Amino acid sequence: MTEKQHEPGDHLLRALEILNAADAGGDDDPEIEAAFRIVARLLPSASPRQDFSRRVIAAIQRVPLSAGRRKLRSRRRVIVTSLTGAAAAAVTGTVLWITGFLGIPVAEIFLFVVQSGTLAVRSVTFIVDMLRFVDRTARVLTAVLTSREMLSVVGTAAFLSVLSVAALKRLVSSSQPLRQTESMKC
Fold it and tell me: How many domains does the chain have?
């Protein structure tokens, strides 16, 4: 009985001090968790009145802004402006369509869109078919070229090709000086 009785406000103030200083502490600090529990226990269990958010927003709007700050624009103003613009565009389009000024360009645009879509579908179909062909060809070439018999045939053909290119180069280089001397005789 000699202990001093603490009021709920004392506990709340101590918990708030702990939470204010929590930036320097770790996330798993038991003292911070206890402070959160104290604050949660002391909060009213009843939910706020239905007009609570409206009253808070009204109070915030009454507070003057600090220097260099601007008021936020209303979301409703943007919605009303966009709806007005859409309605004006619809009315203008309807008037132009009725008078016939817009019929031909809209038909041409629609035709262009349809033709572009058809071309895109054909292009994609062609690309898919080409990829299938390349895949099948690559499988066949891989199967053929990885066999030992084909590797020996390809190696022999490559060797003979290099040999024939070397022989052709020697033949061309040996016949070149003759042509130069023949051209001097003429």
Answer: 2
Residue at 39 is within a domain:
yes
Is the torsion defined by CA of 105, 109, 110, 114 positive or negative?
Answer: positive
Enclosing H/E stretch for 40: helix 30-42
pTM value? 0.28
End residue of a domain, out of 50, 72, 94: 72
- The reply to whether 142 falls in a domain is no
The label of the residue with tokens 């003057």 reads 64
pLDDT digits (tens, 9 = 90+) for 7-29: 657 777 888 888 777 765 556 67
d(CA 43, CA 11): 12
C-alpha–C-alpha distance, residues 109 and 120, integer Å: 16
Identify the DSSP state of 21: G
pLDDT digits (tens, 9 = 90+) for 168-183: 888 887 766 555 555 5
Last residue of a domain, one of 23, 49, 72: 72
pLDDT tens, residue by residue, 94-150: 777 777 776 677 778 888 888 888 888 888 889 999 999 999 999 888 887 788 887
Fill in the DSSP letter of residue 23.
G
Rounded (5°) CA angle 109-113-114: 120
Domain that holds residue 166: 147-186
